[in-house]
Amino acid sequence: MAELPVRHIVIGTEALRTLQNNVWSERYVQAWLAGSGGGRVPVRIRYRGGHTREYPKKSYEVVRGGRTYHYNAEYDDPSMIRNALSFQFFRWIGVPSPRTKHCLLYLNGESLGVYLEIEGVEDAFFRKRGIGAGPLFYAVNDDANFSLVKGDSNRRKASLLAGYQQMKGTVKDRERLRLFISRINTLRSKQLGMYIRQQLDVDNYLRWLAGAVLTGNYDGFDQNYAIYRHKTKLKYRMIPWDYEGTWGRNCYGKPCGSDLVRIQGYNKLTSKVLAFKVARSRYKTLLMQFLGTSFTVERIVPVAERMHESIRPHIIRDGARKWSVSDFDGETRFIRNYIQERRQLVQEALRNL
User: Backbone phi, then psi, for 47, in 5-degree steps?
Assistant: First the structure.
């Protein structure tokens, strides 16, 4: 049996009661964390996620020594590998993304089963990669669509920063992002093109866009990303986040087809960028490059199979899983079929881009 790292969380009675009494609370409680080698370190812990907080198998956010780790139950994903596989794919195509590892999680001695440990996007994330990051924002809901109107209607936003949570930076940085969103919606023609080139790392954006399009993350364009401003380049860059709803399934695990996401993607900034021929040409080149190198059955499926095999013995014993073992066992084939179908759809769509 493949060995997985073990994480032991210990929470006192009162702290655990506080945590359980309000699953929607953003407040941390004190706890301890121990690994396979023993020895406990103090941590802070809270539940994380949106609709998943009401699931029987919950996800956690743990702050340890100033660094944040997310322990995702991946409850809706029958494969339990979609996030990990997606972030690996983004690294292949040149977009920094969180590191992941599957582990066995225990709470006060009780096994919670298999979890995915995900590196938080924060100062340590950028230091580790030698990236000079300035202000950082999380896109936490679908109002983070770079538009003047709300994501679910044509009503004008009360604030252009609706949908964003500032994780790092100043009030001036908030105003700068607000101004960026305003100007991409109001500038026209050459002025807009010049402004986008000045303020946005277009190559990073197009690679990020290609990653969301190829993996089929419908929710990845107007939420589920981080945006930061590089300290010296002084341009905005994108980082993917929450890619459970990918590779042919949505965020609830329902099969959604390989044609759910158009190759032009979504959100107002994407439409503005791709309005320029030079950007469309570069995007088309990137997509063709990825179809020939990274987005292939030969490159992806062996990685998916290794992830799958490493956790299968533990999945069998994980009674808190939503999906059956037979569902789990069919997932590498499901992902393979998605890649084959998606490749064909993208190749056809590229002719009209």
Answer: -75, 155
